[in-house]
Amino acid sequence: MSTLTEPRPTADAVELELTYRDAINLAMSEELDRDPNVVLIGEDVAAAGGVFKTNEKLAELYPGRLINTPICENGFTGVALGMALMGMRPIVEFMFSDFLPSAGDQIVNQLPKYRFMSGGQCSVPVTIRSISGGTGRFGTQHSATGESWFMSLPGLRVCAASSPGSAYDLLRAAIRENNPVIFHEHKGLYGRKGLVRKGAPPAEIGKAAVLREGSDVTVVATLLMVERALAAADLLQGEGISVEVIDLRWTRPLDLASVKAAVTRTGRLVVAEEQVHAGGWGATLISELTMGGLRWRAAPRAVSLPADICISYSPDLEDAILPSVDRIADAARSAVKG
Questions:
Q1: Which architecture does CATH list for 209-337?
Q2: Of 100, 177, 182, 223, which residue is 20 to 30 A from 206 by alpha carbon distance?
Q3: How many CB atoms lie within 10 A of CB 292?
Q4: Distance between the two ends of the chain, CA-based, in angstroms?
Q5: What are phi and psi of 310, to 5 degrees?
Q6: 143-195, pLDDT tens digit by residue?
Q7: Which residues does residue 198 pair with via DSSP β-bridges, in sequence order?
Q8: Which are the catalytic amino acids?
Q9: Phi, psi of 185 (to 5 degrees)
Q10: Which segments of the chain have a pLDDT < 50?
Q11: What crossing angle do the helices spanning 256-266 and 281-291 adopt, rounded to 10°?
């Protein structure tokens, strides 16, 4: 598997195998240690270690810098805005991405606009950790990814971590960014292990990663769908179909250049997204590439959630609703044969 556009190891980097959960914990620990202005706020983030235990031991290591809040997303996101305007770098933990709309005024009308309204005098370095995705059997009100809900807002950055390595790189980049960032982490990945380059440079803002080279079809994915896209590529390799896999990483800004370069080679595109296709990053990507004059060998395919079905609490139904390895492989196979 090639990692063509991921940060290369530096002389000071140490390669570790960590779980996705521990990679997030390490990224926050390093940033709390590096900058005394970094704090973490949210529901049960301190002594409890977070509902998914991503913050374990951080309250002991950094006394007073993990702050439990009431259950009031709009309120504590507004507090984070005030902190940022006074020179701090708050990390805000949203227990589930489904709760992002509860802070809609702050996310839509406040955080991304302050820098513009102040003529560049104010920075808003707020990182919102949004816990996303299905597979947890949490039902329809606790299983959304939300990765495209806010991608049209000027002044906002939106990223999505698909592996321990990308979680470590992207979260550090988000915390150091002077604009507000929504960082999506997937609850179905917390136990996955992978390579983390401790001490390597943070991820580049707005840069996708080519995880696997291929010549027949390009699959672009985010979050859990990246893992499934790579599995689909392995499956299709046995059929003589060469699949290129791109981890989009950022839904705002979109790395159109990297995707265009890949699809110019293959002529075929499949987007794999754990969301409804309409109005999402996949539809935007296809639209932008088409308007940019890209010539397709076959019509683009989308593997996504059904348009009119909510994610179910039932394990069997949830598994049937979420895009699978087989569905991604079928879409790529269809694009090549079509």
A1: 3-Layer(aba) Sandwich (3.40)
A2: 100
A3: 9
A4: 26
A5: -80, 155
A6: 999 999 999 999 999 999 999 999 999 999 999 999 999 999 999 999 999 99
A7: 14
A8: 73, 142
A9: -120, 150
A10: 1-9
A11: 70
Q: How distant is the alpha carbon of residue 298 from its chain centre?
A: 28
Domain 15-198 of CATH type 3.40.50.970: yes
Q: Specify the length of the chain in residues.
A: 338
Q: What is the pLDDT of residue 320?
A: 96
pLDDT attached to residue 2:
33
CA distances from 76 to 42, 102, 312 (A): 7, 11, 30
Pull the structure tokens for residue 278.
């309409």
> CA nearest 54: which of 147, 183, 185?
185
> In angstroms, what CA-CA distances link 209 with 212, 213, 234?
9, 11, 18
**CA 217 from centre of chain:** 23
Distances (CA, A) of 321 to 42, 132, 266, 311, 324: 30, 16, 29, 7, 9
d(CA 189, CA 191): 6
Rounded (10°) CA dihedral 1, 324, 258, 30:
-70
Residue 171 corresponds to which amino acid?
L
Residue 203 DSSP one-character state? P
What beta strand segments (E) does the chain contain?
14-19, 38-42, 66-68, 89-94, 127-132, 157-160, 181-186, 193-198, 209-212, 217-221, 243-247, 250-252, 269-276, 301-305
Q: Can you tell me the distance from the alpha carbon of 333 to that of 136, in angstroms, rounded to the nearest whole number?
A: 29
Report the share of the chain in percent with pLDDT over 90.
96
**CA–CA dist 256, 283 (Å, integer):** 13
Domain with CATH 3.40.50.920 in the chain: 209-337
* pLDDT at 131 (0 to 100): 98
Residue showing tokens 């707005």: 206
Residue 11 has what pLDDT?
Answer: 54
For CATH 3.40.50.970, the residue range(s) in the chain are 15-198
DSSP-assigned letters across all residues of 162-202? -SHHHHHHHHHHHHH-SS-EEEEEEGGGTT-EEEEEETSPP
